[in-house]
Amino acid sequence: MIVIYGIKNRLNPIKARLSDVIQHCMNQALGLPEDKRSHRFIPMDKEDLYFPGGRSEAYTVIEINMMKGRKEETKKQLIKALFREIETEIGISPIDIEIIIKEQPAHCWGFRGMTGDEVKDLKYKVSV
Fold first, then answer.
1. For domain 2-118, is the CATH number 3.30.429.10?
2. In the 8-state DSSP scheme, what is residue 81?
3. Per DSSP, what are the bridge partners of residue 65?
4. 15-30 vs 72-90: helix crossing angle, rounded to 10
5. Domain-wise residue ranges, the chain
6. Rounded CA gap, 38 and 59, in Å?
7. Of the candidates 124, 71, 62, 119, which has an alpha carbon nearest to the alpha carbon of residue 94?
8. Is 110 a residue whose pLDDT tops 90?
9. What pLDDT does residue 124 have?
10. Taking residues 89-100, what's their average pLDDT?
11. Which candidate, 35, 37, 25, 34, places its Cα nearest to that of 99?
């Protein structure tokens, strides 16, 4: 699951395109199928989003929640691809993008009535 935060007047107009770019990077770096898109957008009022100095109102936070198992190099490739593709396709400078990968053990995930460590039919690999 991916949660994207930003100032609403900047985030709302680009949500669909940003979702496409993020999913493309997830597909390429992690091998996720296209239908595994799980994005949540949190558009915020300007007074509710405090961000570091030197950033513009385009400041966007991308939290990527995933099961543990990906290699360090795979996660770094994903982060670099996101910076590159978001700048190229959406026009947000890397200085205005913050990416956080949060990993949890498979047993901490619950979907389709079971925990992640019980699932045997994923159409993608977690250990990439």
1. yes
2. H
3. 102
4. 150
5. 2-118
6. 21
7. 62
8. no
9. 63
10. 98
11. 25
